[in-house]
Amino acid sequence: MTKVAVFGYESWEREYLAEHTPAGAELIFFDQSLTPDKLVLDADFEILVVFVGSQIDEVVLANFPKVRAIITRSTGYDHIDLASCRTRGITVSNVPGYGEATVAEYTFALLLSLSRKIYLGYHQVRESGSFSVTNLRGFDLEGKTIGVVGTGRIGRHVARLARGFGLKIIAHDTHPDEEFAKSFGLTYRSLPELLGESDIITLHVPALPETEHLLNAVTFSQMKRGAVLINTSRGSIIDTQALVLALRSGQVAGAALDVLEEEGVVRDELDFLVSGHPGEHNLKTVLANHVLIDLPNVIVTPHNAFNTVEALRRILDTTLENLRGVIDGKPINVIP
């Protein structure tokens, strides 16, 4: 029997996974995420099943000497130290596709909230009872240019939805999907060209060393003045401090962010401050996050784009398939 540890789940997820456990697997559940400072005493596991709140580094891996596979219930895998896993011969699998429509729809929910100042209007009515529209004038999407950075599954679906809003669509990708571009009538641009032409910029790239701070002081200066920014990918794609300055100067007119740099720290700042010695970069970023959250032209949501009943069910189904593959000796959805 293969011992499998499952971390960071909701009660219904536990019930679903337990009900559909593959033959040959023994699932043991831990409601907390797995991090270097929150290890478990029982280290006799061969497979770890985690979510994005877990942080799998060398310290964690050293605590589980028998682990041969890690399965993340997510598409992104920047919370896992792949180099250390490769060194130890540990297979890492993810959920490559579960939420193209889910995240794309949320992208437009954020965009519409920003473009039509929906949250500001809601907050005004709720808090003051005022029905004045003086400060709530927005802008139409139809006829504007949207720049889609990253044309993987989610980025392509965003482009499909954008067409329905009458937006002109341009895109940037280090590996352009020319077949999709030809069939869809999409035009690829260099990143500086896209930034300079777009009224709306939406990010759909993974967190990789080459995408860290893809938007920074230099690239913000290349943006069309008064453009708005949407991020439902990963917080590290944006230099938070540079974004604050761009917003204050008016270079960026507004931003809607479902992800932040150091979002785990913002989520649990007390633990962060008492558990060690935070670095200067972390502290500056955390402070910048608070500035962002307080700005009237910024919408911040808690990494919620994936969170629908249908998407979570798809995640669990793929996770079970990944688990079955490892147990059968034929891993699938392996991250190279």
Largest sheet: 7 strands, parallel
Name the structural class. alpha/beta
Query: Topology as H/E string?
Result: EHEEHEHEHHEHEHEHEHEHEHHHEH
Shape: globular
Rg result: 21 Å
Overall CATH class of the largest domain:
Alpha Beta
Mean residue pLDDT: 92
As a percent range, the share of strand residues is 15-25%
Strand order of the largest sheet: 8-7-6-9-10-11-12
Distance between the termini: 27 Å
At the fourth CATH level, what is the homologous superfamily of the largest domain?
NAD(P)-binding Rossmann-like Domain
Q: What's the total number of strands?
A: 12
Identify the CATH architecture of the largest domain.
3-Layer(aba) Sandwich
Helix content: 25-40%
Q: Give the number of helices.
A: 14
Task: Count structural domains.
Answer: 2
Q: Can you tell me the residue ranges where pLDDT is under 50 for at least 5 consecutive residues?
A: 265-280
The CATH topology of the largest domain corresponds to: Rossmann fold
Describe the structure.
The chain has 336 residues and is of the alpha/beta class. The protein has 2 domains: 2-94 and 309-327, NAD(P)-binding Rossmann-like Domain (Rossmann fold); 100-257 and 259-300, Rossmann fold, CATH 3.40.50. The protein contains 14 helices and 12 strands. Strands 8-7-6-9-10-11-12 form a 7-stranded parallel sheet, sandwiched between helices. Strand 4 (69-72), helix 3 (82-87) and strand 5 form a beta-alpha-beta unit. Helix 4 packs across helix 6. It is globular and about 65 Å long. The model is unreliable at 265-280 (pLDDT under 50).
